Automatic annotation (TrEMBL), chain A:
Pfam families: Cytochrom_C
SUPFAM superfamilies in the record: Cytochrome c
Domain Cytochrome c, residue spans: 27-116
Keywords assigned by UniProt, alphabetized: Heme, Iron, Metal-binding, Signal
PANTHER family associated with the record: BLL4482 PROTEIN, BLL4482 PROTEIN-RELATED
Keyword presence, Nucleus: no
Membrane-spanning residues: none
Protein name (record): C-type cytochrome
Domain of life: Bacteria
Amino acid sequence: MNKKLLLAAAGMFTVAGLFAQKTTAKKAAPKGKEIYTQYCLSCHQPDGDGVPNLNPPLINTSYVLGDKTKLITWVLKGTTEKVEIDGQTYSNNMPPQNFLTDEQLASVLTYIRSNFGNKASAISAADVKAVRATVK
Amino acid sequence: MMKNIKMKSNWLFIALLAITTTYARAGKDSTATSAPAAEVKADANNAGLKLPAGFGALKVADSVNGARHIVVTEKGDIYVKTSGTKNGGGIFVLHVGDNGKLQSKEGFGNYGGTGIAIKNGYLYASSNTEVFRYKLDADGKVADPENPEKIITGLLDRHQHESKSIALDNDGNIYVNIGAYSNSCQEKDRTNGSMGMKPCPILDSAAGIWQFKADKPNQTYGDGARYATGLRNVVGLDWNTTTNSLFVMQHGRDGLHDLFGQYFDAKQSAELPAECMYQVKKGDNAGWPYIYYDQIQQKKILAPEYGGDGKKTGGEDAIDPVVAFPGHLAPNGLLFYTGNMFPAKYKNGAFIAFHGSWNRAPEPQKGYLVAFVPFKDGKPSGKWEIFADDFAGGPEFISPAKAKHRPCGLAQGPDGSLYISDDKGGSIYRIVYKGK
């Protein structure tokens, strides 16, 4: 009887834990999407597939799925150079997004790394903070 | 080294082919005096295009990657300038058979670019910094593809609006677009709320049309003249022989909502500003970056970077557009039709190849089409209309990355056919009129 109760309690605890986790993820996702829609979408497009020769796609590209530090630096600094990504060149300027907070950048970068068919690890506010400290 | 040898042997082959073709044509001409030349047939589905009644389309070729501007010789060969190079070729000459379909394709000119034109026995072609010309022989073929004359050099290429489109007049001049390396001359390009530089320093060396001599080698900024200014970026332009003047299509500015959301919502930003056709004369100013043209209010409006709010007007010294199209459709080709194949309505009118939008998101993208504007006595005589549509491939493809084809260049064939290039799918289309 005691054992059963314990199991049930443990089960409930796990469910509650999962639920809590799920709500946090759900909370983060809309925030990332919201930031993407406001600051990124008009160039990188609703599906993240970009504009050929101008604005790079965010789908399955080494810049998005690869090294976190490189991606964070890129978004903080922007570029005025022609960029070659995975064999294609893109010529439009990207303005620096350094006005976004660490939390906002973490949400939007996590969003792009886990949407549009991408499956890469999350980026935390601490990750952004650490990189921001090195970027002038 | 190997490539050079290969290129040379290719050209020997073309020379032989040219001689053979010439003989073949001579033979055919002498026996065909009583019968008209074989007419090309449209593809069964008009190559996937939607056209006005009586017109048909065929796909001449579907493998010319990055096909930008095009020109057709008197003999019906098509020269295509490509945005990049393939096997050392940045210009491709397409020979077509009597059915209008590609027979052979040869490349030369080892540089990517956009502009191409034929004038007074020369083929002109541009990279993003230079303009070259190649002497044509009596058959309209480039005689020495390895040794062009460099006519213009040292033009600015700062990775934004970098293509150098060209047009020639009848007085020995060539006109080159030098696009602004900026969206709206903000202190920080494309940055929310950043104000415009005043005066805009870009106007000295870009954001206009420069005029050079068509036959003088190695000219650069000091040798030419800034013919017209205040043009953000022009890709489609053509010399109009009725008015004896230059007409250009400007790509209007992006991001009114993104950059100044306090004055513009996303819907307004998708429609504004107009993509403008201008007739430009020497010394004209079209007003960029200080103003833009609002086709709904039909006014020149002060840009928000310079104190505008979407309502304040400006640009008293700037010219008005001849035609104003919806925003962001990206007009990449302009051609005044002087042929005799199409019905009278089309004579001397303007065809415009729209590349299709990207800066209308989150509103749906549009404009993957060729438009037409009727002209009479050098002025528009009616509203613009869609001439050829469905390049993208259907409603589900109407976005820049998904679109199957994007119109870019236009050319008129010796029989009056209209040719359209596509730099997304590499297709060359030919539009013919089949009668009622």
